[in-house]
Structures are given as C-alpha cells and as structure tokens.
Write a structure and sequence with these properties.
The chain is built from 5 helices and 11 strands, in the order ββαβαββββαβαβββα. With about 220 residues, it is of the alpha/beta class.
C-alpha cells in the first residue's frame, strides 16, 4: 500500500468492524468482519520540539469512562473531539499545546492524543490503566525501555499538583514518539517544568526509543 501511494514513511491505521448486519444491537459472534486500511503521509514534526518541548493545557472536560473493563482503541472519539474544541479556546493552542484530561475523580488520565509521564526524584510515573486510559503501544515501550535502563517505573493515581512540581514531563504517541513538555497551563496560569528545556532522563529515553525502533533524525 505504501508503494502504491509512493510513501516511504506513513501513518497507517488498520480498522476491523463487526461487518454487516441488521440495524440494532446484534450481539452474536462477528463471523464476517470488514477490514479497512487507512494510510497517509506522516506529518512533519520540527526537531526543535524534542529539545524545547511543547505546552500542556489542563482541560475542564473530564475523560469519560471506558465502555468495558479496558479501553480499546476504537472510533469512539466524541470525548476527544469535545476536548479538542475546548483546547481551541485557550491561548496555548496557538503554540500547538496538547490538552490534558482528568478523570471524574480529579486524577490525571491522558492527553487528547497522547499518554503522559512525569519524572520526580529519578522515578518515572504514569497513570495506571485503572484510570480508564488507553494503554498505548508507545507507552508500553517507554516503560520497558526505562526498566531495562534501570529506571524505577511506577503506575498510579496522580494529581495535577504533582505535575506542577515534577522534574520532567513528557507525552507519548506513535507519531510524535516521546515529546517533552516544558510548559504547563491551568487556564491562563503558566508553569515552567524544570529549566524549561527537555530534561536529562527524557532525552535519554528519546535516544533509547529511536535506537530500538531504528528511527534516525
């Protein structure tokens, strides 16, 4: 498919549906699912973002609970779309900020299109999947790489105030990989993370990730 579209690097999304059936809520086995393959060129990402970082805006919209015991990657994006609409109302959006959602219990969940990590006292923290977050592929790889490098990793329930005093903060997703966060926003209040640049441990994890995946920048 990439050759047909003359692409060397691409974003690929493979979607499996339940197939065709009558209107309603069919609950039987999915014997004839449909398969969809969506592909587009990778968006260009400035290398500056990996040293200077990006902004993270706290949103008032809460992350909805998953439809089942675990959140699956699905086409149910209403929560994300509403979050993105809210984000557009903040000044930080002009700088390409990501939006951060909390749970109904005021616990950190995830970004609109990312998982979140923070480092405090050389310990890597990330929200536990019990918060209802998507267990992202890049998230899992980062935890694996950190542990193999001797970094202590903890999953738990964390709060916004803990992010504000973190030594380092970063986001993960499959397209942008590991992106440092250097500025936090709570409405129009600005908080600088660390010294305002990509932190030492985040930089190391970026290098480990690129080495593992064969990405060269």
């Amino acid at each position: 498919v990439m050759d047909k579209n003359e692409l060397k690097e691409a974003y690929i999304r493979y979607t499996v549906t339940a197939g065709e059936d009558i209107l309603g809520l069919p609950a039987g086995d999915y014997c004839e699912p449909n398969h969809l393959l969506y592909i587009k060129a990778l968006p260009k990402v400035s290398e500056k973002i990996y040293s200077e970082g990006k902004d993270l805006q706290l949103l008032s919209l809460r992350r909805n609970t998953p439809e089942g015991a675990v959140r699956f990657k699905s086409l149910h994006y209403m929560n994300n779309i509403l979050a993105k609409r809210e984000l557009r109302g903040y000044a930080s959006a002009a700088n390409g900020a990501e939006g951060l959602m909390l749970t109904a219990q005021e616990v950190i969940a995830e970004g609109i299109v990312s998982n979140i990590f923070f480092i405090k006292n050389n310990i890597l923290h990330t929200p536990d999947i019990s918060t209802g977050i998507l267990p992202g592929i890049t998230r899992e790889m980062v935890m694996e790489l950190a542990r193999s490098a001797g970094i202590r990793v903890e999953e738990g329930a964390y709060h916004w105030e803990q992010l504000k005093i973190a030594d380092e903060v970063f986001l993960t997703n499959s397209v942008q990989e590991i992106v440092p966060v250097t500025t936090l926003w709570e409405k129009d209040k600005r908080f600088t993370v660390g010294d305002g640049l990509c932190g030492r441990m985040t930089s190391g994890l970026i290098s480990f990730y690129r080495e593992r995946t064969g990405i060269s920048k």
